[in-house]
Amino acid sequence: MSTLKADTIQNTSGGAVTLTNQQAAKAWVRYNQYSSPVGITDSFDISSVTDDESGVFTITKTNAMSDANYPITATAASQYTNDRPYIIGPAGLDGTWTTTQVEITTAYHENSKQDGPRSCVVFYGDLA
Question: 6-43: per-residue pLDDT in tens?
Fold first, then answer.
């Protein structure tokens, strides 16, 4: 068996390698909504998370997606010890969803918008 070892793999132009027939996450972020400004704990291809109002945040990507039809996966941890879940996902139809930004809403189980201690969002699809 052969072993390939490399520190960096780039395409012939020096940019990111295109994954053929694979769908890896294109961006992700973990952030604390209680921090002011919002505390990004860790991220990949995310330039900022903006606190728009209680329970509403806009995530801005560093590199644009190919179109605004990409899927995301989002999770949030509850601040309460009784394990009542948060609901997290894209804002309503009037919310921002572009090739570089998506607006996320976090709500407590009875649908009141609230900030959470730990939220995670993953972006999938094709980069521009």
Answer: 888 888 898 877 766 667 899 999 998 877 788 899 99
Q: What's the Cα-to-Cα distance from 62 to each of 9, 33, 82, 94, 98, rounded to whole Å?
A: 20, 20, 37, 23, 13
User: Is residue 8 included in any domain, yes or no?
Assistant: no
Give me the count of residues in the chain.
128
Could you read off the pLDDT of 35-89 as tens digits, one per residue? Answer: 778 889 999 999 999 999 988 999 999 999 999 999 999 988 776 666 566 777 7
Residue 1 per-residue DSSP state: -
Task: Decide if 10 is inside a domain.
Answer: no
Token pair 């027939």 is found at 21
Model-level pTM greater than 0.90? no
Q: List, edge to edge, every strand of the sheet that includes 39-44.
A: 39-44, 27-32, 118-123, 72-77
Q: Residue 88 belongs to what domain range?
A: 27-123
